[in-house]
Design a protein that fits this description.
Helix 6 links the parallel strand 6 and strand 7. Among the domains are: about 140 residues, Rossmann fold (3-Layer(aba) Sandwich), CATH 3.40.50.720; about 70 residues, Rna Polymerase Sigma Factor, Chain: A (Orthogonal Bundle), CATH 1.10.1740. The radius of gyration is 20 Å and the shape is globular. The chain is built from 15 helices and eleven strands. The protein is α/β, with parallel strands linked by helices. Helix 5 runs parallel beside helix 6 and helix 9 crosses helix 13. The structure holds NADPH dihydro-nicotinamide-adenine-dinucleotide phosphate (NDP), 1-deoxy-D-xylulose-5-phosphate and manganese (II) ion. Manganese (II) ion binds next to helix 7. It catalyses: 2-C-methyl-D-erythritol 4-phosphate + NADP(+) = 1-deoxy-D-xylulose 5-phosphate + NADPH + H(+).
Length: about 375
């Protein structure tokens, strides 16, 4: 029986994970849940899954949560960064699903690795900020990081039974987002509502905007380089609007292996939690004759400069990928709050990256400081636009 901690339980990944868990109550025991602000949903999750401990963003939310659960409840309510660190590393759990959004995921991820938990990683921002440190720490602690991100789960699955040294390149598929067919001239008038309607996946707000700008693919390029120990030129982004092929691996003999399935994150989540077993999730296969073709095209890198940002960040290394990530988080927030336009997102990321003095081979403290610097710099741009 897996003893689970789920950080980000109220989010899109967290809720899908709990749907998997609810199907398999004799395999998974939910011991800890962590959320940020959505205490109403967290209270329902407490009622349903009876965890021993929960963590929320601050003391006020902890108080609010306590007012929503019965006085007789024995659940321990923690809060703040310390609460998340405990949630990620407590002795009562053996497996941690890291499904918080954004840079806040980094320290809990390191805490889970240090505590030698089985780590199912959805939070890609962690690897963008500190991929070298995180993967080195995982190797040192003999911790396997099971990817949850659909593309990386696909690559992980295609690599199974193959030798890493036979891998020549990976083809990272991208849906192209909701604006694939919209001319760039119309980008300045696009609204958060337009950007939130992803063509194939149902996801949280931040990653949905990242898909619309292709910053999601930028983050995923860096995530893949660290997870699979690749050189940047071994990663090729291929636009595949149907989101049936979740990514592909090309081997030295010219063979390409692809992993396919309907776009539903429950498959990747459950594989990360139950590897090497595959659970029956009641999911259908794609109806191949009905698909009217799967197609692939090169991304338009002029319309979407994000992929170039990723390769630039990888080339410079050090603190630049984390700065790219932080500038993106601030810009996405500004866009969602109607403070800036869609095109400003690219401008803010590019300008913040160009202004950054890269620290090579940074430690965690340098990365956190660079993240703070980038947030201030990007935040000032949001204010003045
Ligand atoms: N959704 C998807 O299909 C996929 C997501 N991912 C990645 O998984 C992660 C989660 O994505 P998704 O589920 O879509 O996001 P959501 O926005 O749906 O959920 C985010 C979760 O994180 C919590 N949270 C937000 N901010 C903080 C914070 N500062 N500290 C602690 N917890 C916080 C939220 O709490 P609350 O709601 O209570 O405020 C919520 O539980 C992201 O890194 C994303 O890139 C990767 C592949 C696919
Ligand atoms: C489900 C998942 O893994 C997302 O990261 C998805 O890939 C987003 O779709 P895009 O390909 O549009 O970025
Ligand atoms: Mn993905």
């Amino acid at each position: 029986m897996r003893q689970l901690s789920i950080l980000g339980s109220t989010g899109s990944i967290g809720q899908s994970a709990l749907a998997v868990v609810a199907r398999y109550p004799h395999r998974f025991n939910v011991r800890i849940l962590a959320a940020a602000n959505n205490v109403t949903l967290l209270a329902r999750q407490i009622e349903m899954f009876a965890p021993d401990m929960v963590a929320v963003i601050n003391r006020e939310k902890a108080r609010e949560l306590k007012s929503l659960i019965p006085d007789t409840s024995s659940v321990d309510v923690l809060w703040g960064e310390k609460g998340y660190l405990v949630a990620a590393s407590h002795d009562m759990v053996d497996t941690v699903l890291l499904a918080m959004v954004g840079a806040a995921g980094l320290m809990p991820a390191l805490a889970a690795i240090d505590a030698q938990k089985k780590v199912a990683l959805a939070n890609k921002e962690t690897l963008v900020m500190a991929g070298e440190i995180v993967m080195a720490r995982a190797a040192e602690k003999q911790v396997t990081v099971y990817p949850v991100d659909s593309e990386h789960s696909a690559i992980f699955q295609c690599l199974e039974g193959n030798r890493q040294r036979d891998l020549r390149k990976i083809f990272l598929t991208a849906s192209g987002g909701p604006f694939r067919l919209i001319p760039r001239e119309r980008f300045s008038s696009l609204t958060p509502k337009d950007a939130l309607s992803h063509p194939t996946w149902d996801m949280g707000a931040k990653i949905s905007i990242d898909s619309a700008t292709l910053m999601n693919k930028a983050l995923e390029i860096i995530e893949a380089v660290h997870l699979f120990k690749l050189m940047p030129d071994q990663v090729e982004v291929v636009v595949h609007p149907q989101s049936i092929v979740h990514s592909m691996v090309g081997f030295s003999d010219g063979t390409v292996m692809a992993q396919m399935g309907l776009p539903d994150m429950k498959a990747a989540i459950s594989y990360a939690l139950s590897w090497p077993e595959r659970l029956d999730l009641g999911l259908d296969f794609p109806d191949f004759p009905d698909l009217a073709g799967l197609f692939f095209e090169a991304p338009d890198r002029e319309k979407f400069p994000s992929i170039d940002f990723a390769f630039k960040a990888l080339e410079a290394g050090g603190t630049l990928p984390g700065v790219m990530n932080a500038a993106n988080e601030v810009a996405v927030d500004g866009f969602l709050n109607h403070a800036i336009g869609f095109l400003d997102i690219f401008h803010i990321i590019e300008t913040t990256m160009s202004a950054h003095k890269v620290i090579p081979s940074p430690g965690v403290a340098d990365i956190v400081a660079a993240d703070g610097w980038a947030r201030e710099r990007a935040g000032a741009m949001v204010e003045t636009i």
